[in-house]
Write a structure and sequence with these properties.
The protein is α/β, with parallel strands linked by helices. 39% of the residues lie in helices and 17% in strands. A hairpin with a 5-residue loop joins strand 3 and strand 4. The two termini are 34 Å apart.
């Protein structure tokens, strides 16, 4: 369904009514925003929820159960955003579509899919639709961890220079691990894959009719460094059939962020209701594209885009190889700076998990009676508890660890539970755990030569006042807030404005069109002192389970995966052909 979120008509005497459209493709939905280029005013917004959401259990159209740690998506859900959310946002804005001069898009990353040479997803062909590896792998598809482990081990053994640009570890979420998994588990699908492409670039292909590749996803997710992908000798050592992966399935000229990569085709114009031939900006990643929307493009301003997961991006003046950081890419956020990325694989997902599992019936009745949602209810119940009053500390690894350990076979831990522990106390401990994970990232950047001078938050979780205050106290630094509720979509619109020639570059456009509330939350020294003690306990757990010799969490996951896989394989064999 498509829901209009906001509408604001332009004034009749506006001197410049030119507009751009930004489209943000998230994990569960896509949203479009119409923005005026002269001042960044958001005129209308609409959202379309993906009918297939995250495909984690069964492959659509089949009875086939998916293995553990899989997460897929449906390409048609993404096209439907163009058909529904974009025209709905334009209608909500009350503007003449002829006033729109450009469109920009962003995507979760690394969400990647195998396609034919003309861009047709293998998942949408009768020949391959019944095979799971033909489908787009969402960013949180974590089943390629064994491949990632081998990629890392071999890179270090061979002394590959690029491995240190990624904190010493390539993630299971990224292009190479996922592609190698396809090759090793379904070589027929791999051979049928003529192009292996980020969804961020594929959706632009749908708009322009021509393939393009953006510098952001290539650098952070595709191991493109110093003008090249990893060499064929290295790839062949991973698997003989993988030698030509980069040359045949990835290589393409890379487009700078904010550049125009094509024009809107007649077909895409019919989908969106926008004028044929308007500028289409290079694809981008949802986190990185948000930096100009929050005016976080200056060096040292760390932007945390907090939603189901959190991605942290910050610009630095020079190259620094920071252990455990997801990538350092020249021009990866804006031209003229080295962009650094880190992240946490689950944040909002962790809180949502607890609301599903840990809230008793009487709390549900109370929330209904007071008109609160469960976040508000639990926050109210726990807000006045002194720091440490619950006696808990948790690890924020329910979705694995993206930074600084880069290990998606890790899992969550809650220590200190007693028979007296209340639901709101676990909730607060989980909020705090994500703040500790962020502090570990900030410390790694600071110690690695990328100083963090400001912490800025965008995304849906910035509305949680308790969470934001916890972050300010744990980090011992003010928390600023991106003003827009649609940060990535606004960021995409800013890039569209540059691609259309309305502003000369992204930095200039950010100063005109971006919005931020500086120092919205300030740290309390007493609470910060108390959190220092709890953070020390977090680090003990972090190092024991994450870097210590006892790989208990790995063993537990292996036991679970073996047990679940046996059941699912038996069920699939009885319901459909392999």
């Amino acid at each position: 369904m498509t829901e209009t979120l906001s509408a604001r008509a332009t004034g009749a005497d506006d001197q410049d009514d030119r507009c751009v459209v930004g489209v943000d493709f998230g994990t569960l939905s896509g949203r479009a925003v119409v923005v005026r280029v002269r001042d960044g005013e958001e005129l209308g917004t609409a959202v379309h929820a993906y009918p297939h959401a995250v495909i984690e259990d069964r492959l659509p159209g089949t009875g086939r159960l998916l293995p553990p740690d899989w997460a897929l998506q449906h390409p048609e859900d993404w096209r439907e955003v163009l058909r529904t959310a974009v025209p709905a946002a334009v209608a909500a804005a009350g503007v003449d579509p002829a006033a729109v001069i450009g469109i920009g898009t962003d995507f979760t990353a690394c969400t990647v899919l195998p396609v034919r040479a003309d861009g047709t997803p293998l998942a949408e062909t009768s020949e391959w639709a019944a095979r799971p590896h033909a489908w787009p792998k969402l960013w949180k598809h974590h089943a390629a961890q064994p491949q990632a482990d081998r990629i890392n081990a071999l890179a270090h053994a061979r002394g590959e220079k690029w491995i240190h640009r990624y904190g010493g570890r390539i993630s299971a979420e990224w292009q190479y691990a996922k592609a190698l998994q396809v090759l090793e588990e379904d070589p027929r699908v791999y051979e049928a894959c003529e192009r292996w492409i980020e969804a961020a670039d594929w959706i632009v292909w749908q708009l322009t009719g021509e393939e393009s590749r953006n510098a952001c996803t290539a650098g952070y997710k595709g191991i493109f460094q110093d003008g090249a992908y990893p060499g064929e000798e290295y790839l062949a050592a991973l698997h003989p059939g993988f030698a030509d992966f980069a040359r045949t399935r990835l290589e393409h000229p890379l487009a700078a962020l904010g550049s125009r990569v094509g024009s809107l085709t007649p077909r895409a114009a019919a989908w969106t209701g926008l004028p044929e031939g308007i500028a289409v900006a290079a694809g981008n990643v949802d986190a990185h594209v948000t930096a100009p929307a929050a005016r976080a493009v200056d060096n040292g301003r760390l932007l945390a885009i907090m939603g189901t997961s959190t991605c942290h991006v910050v610009n630095g003046q020079a190259l620094a190889e920071v252990p455990g950081i997801c990538g350092a890419v020249e021009g990866g956020i804006v031209d003229g700076a080295w962009g650094y990325e880190a992240g946490q694989s689950a944040v909002g997902d962790i809180f949502a998990w607890w609301l599903r599992q840990g809230v008793p019936a009487d709390y549900l009745r109370e929330a209904e009676a007071t008109g609160e949602d469960l976040h508000q209810l639990l926050s109210r119940k726990i807000a006045d508890q002194p720091v440490g009053g619950h006696g808990l500390v948790a690890l924020d690894w329910m979705g694995g660890n993206r930074s600084v350990l880069v290990d998606h076979h890790l899992s969550g831990v809650i220590a200190g539970l007693t028979l007296a522990t209340r639901p709101e106390e676990v909730y607060r401990a989980l909020l705090e755990a994500t703040a500790y994970g962020t502090r570990a990232i900030v410390e790694a950047l600071d110690e690695g030569g990328v100083p963090v001078t400001e912490f800025v938050v965008a995304g849906g979780l910035k509305k949680n006042a308790l969470l934001m205050q916890v972050y300010a106290d744990v980090l011992r630094r003010p928390v600023s807030l991106a003003a827009s509720e649609q940060g990535p979509a606004l960021g995409s619109a800013i890039h569209a404005a540059v691609a259309a020639g309305a502003h000369p570059d992204v930095r200039t456009a950010a100063a005109v069109m971006g919005r931020v509330e500086r120092h919205a939350y300030l740290p309390d020294p007493a609470r910060a002192d108390a959190y220092d003690a709890l953070y020390a306990e977090y680090r003990l757990l972090h190092d024991h389970f994450g870097t210590g010799p006892d790989k208990q969490l790995h063993r537990l996951r292996a036991i679970r995966n073996a047990a679940v896989s046996e059941v699912r394989e038996a069920s699939s064999d009885s319901n459909c052909e392999g």
